[in-house]
Every structure is written in C-alpha cells, then in structure tokens.
Fold D-alanyl-D-alanine carboxypeptidase family protein.
Amino acid sequence: MNRTTVAATVALTAGAVLAGSAFASSAQAATPPTPTITAKGGFVMNNGTAKTLYGKAADTRRSTGSTTKIMTAKVVLAQKNLNLDAKVTVQKAYSDYIVSKTASSARLIVGDKVTVRQLLYGLMLPSGCDAAYALADKFGSGSTRAARVKSFIGKMNASAQSLGLKNTHFDSFDGIGSGSNYSTPRDLTKIASSAMKNSTFRTIVKTKSTKQKVTTKSGGYRYMSWSNSNAMLGSYTGMIGVKTGSGPTAKYCLVFAATRSGKTVIGTVLTSTSATTRTADAKKLLDYGFKK
C-alpha cells in the first residue's frame, strides 16, 4: 500500500469517526433525559398539537389552590355579550371573606367601582380571592349572594364537563374549598389551554404588573397596583403565563406556558414543596418540552 492510499484510508476512518460522533450527539439531542421534579404531580403538552410530552401522576386528583382561578376567569370570559367595562361595586362581604379566610387579596376597597376587566387582573395577578368573590357574585344567577355563588361554581363544573374532564371538581370560586375542590395536572393543563384561546385571558396572564384607575365611593378615583405572583414572567425566555397556586393541602402549584420559535409548551405542577421548587420544576419541564 503506498503512502497516498494509507493517507486516504486514515482520512476516511477519521471522517467516519467524526460522522459517527455527530450522529450519536444528534440522537442524544432527540431524546433528552426525562427530568426529575419535586412536585408530586406534573404534566406537559404541546399546546398546538395537544401531544403529551411529560407526565408524573398526571391523572391523580389533588388540591389545586389558586390555580382554580383559571377556571373562574374562563367562566367569566365565556359569558354571552360580556362587557369587560361594566362596573361592579365592591361589597363588604368580599372584604369580610378575605379577613375570615386570611386569603390572598387584590386589596379591593368597599364602595369602589371596578370594571370586570380590572377584577380579572385583580384575580389573576395578585390572586385576589376578593376579586374572585366579586366575579362569582356578578356572574352567578339568583336572588341572594349565596345562590349566585353556588350558580357560578355550577358554571365552573359545567365548563369542566364540557371539556370532557373526569377528574376535576370545584366547590369554590377561588380554590379555598371545603375538601372537594380538586383537579389533576392533565386536566388543569387542558383548562389553561382552553382559556388561552381567549385574547383577553392571554393579555392578562402575561402581564407582570399593572396600575388600574378605579372609581371611589365618593366619585373620585384611586389607582390600584397589582404585581403578578408568577415569578417566571420575565425570568424564563418566552414565558406567557399562566397561574400560581398554594394552600395548606395544595402546597405549591403552577400552571405554566411559554412560546419559543412558534412552539407553545403548556403544563402544570401540583404539590411542590416551596415557591422556589415549584419554579425549578416548571423550568425543567419547559426546557424538556422544548427539546422534545
């Protein structure tokens, strides 16, 4: 074998090794390692195709905390002939409720007139249970507040049924239930995916903070400032929502969505151990979802 042939053989072999390693690395990139999360339940899907990308106890019923408010907003936004600029007067009952439950609040002030749109911001950003109560009172039907609230929760359950969800039930408008307020990572992701079809919902849940002008009891005005409890907005590239949740039973929950290069990944983590681990769990699942 002459020197030229040897050189050509070596070059060919080296090329084959390089090609082989390139092939191996592309194969690895195609199947990223399945992430390990702290949360007891998790689910991720491609929002465009509804293809499941990840699941951990995805159909196990768990307490949902304030992620319940995704459905609260969805029911409001589904009302026929909805006027987002309609005014609602803040009642003492909403304020008393917050105090009695030591609940998260939009700090609504009794007697103020706020619009439905503003209540939705107060519901989804600071996770206002007072805003949730006001919306249930406004959009439920009945001659008493209790009847209207019951009617509204009925609409939440009807909406879940219309989405074909078998593992979701609501007994409250805000997640502070009496033991039978539950969903699953898969079901909550489907609720959020459906809610995200509404442009008003999308605009609200991707808002980091807002300052809203409301009318006071005396006819003047004040500004309400609300910040979004979703820490991933602005810290995770492409983050577009959706909602945090927490509670004694629910622990720490997050329904999340992000868009990169035209692909939207949406998912849920339920029963994580802290606000920090909830965020870390969601980040792992989004990273994984974008690679799949």
Residues 3-30 form the longest helix (28 residues). The chain has a mean pLDDT of 92.
